[in-house]
Write a structure and sequence with these properties.
The chain is mainly α. The protein folds into two domains: 73 residues, no CATH class; 39 residues, no CATH class. This is DUF4124 domain-containing protein.
């Protein structure tokens, strides 16, 4: 019987320690490098876990959900105008490419042809 009470006492002690640690992470501001991200992760994880267990009492998260972040990052980027590339033939007859007309040597600029997209 004594062993059962001892086991119950240790379980109660562990439960109180976990609740105290939980409340510490929720209420005490930790402004130290490494601790602040851990606290932010714990608060987010705890709120998501409680939303799974108690969905009717869930509170909306202020931060974006992971689905929203993925959707924002996978949207196609807005099309920007690409710089015009040019093709010209140098004095030895070799085709050369340039990313802009300013990169084409002056003597070949008149004969330089813009590349089609």
């Amino acid at each position: 019987m004594f062993k059962l009470l001892k086991l119950f006492g240790w379980m109660l002690f562990f439960l109180i320690a976990v609740v105290a640690f939980d409340q510490f992470l929720l209420r005490v501001p930790l402004d130290y490098p490494g601790l602040k991200p851990a606290q932010t992760f714990y608060v987010d994880f705890r709120s998501r876990l409680l939303d799974l267990v108690l969905p009717e009492k869930s509170t909306p998260l202020k931060a974006e959900s992971i689905e929203q972040v993925i959707e924002q990052n996978t949207r196609p980027a807005q099309q920007t105008t690409k710089p015009q590339r040019y093709l010209y033939v140098d004095k030895s007859g070799v085709l050369q490419f340039a990313d802009s007309l300013q990169q084409v040597p002056v003597q070949y600029r008149e004969s330089a042809q813009p590349l089609a997209d």
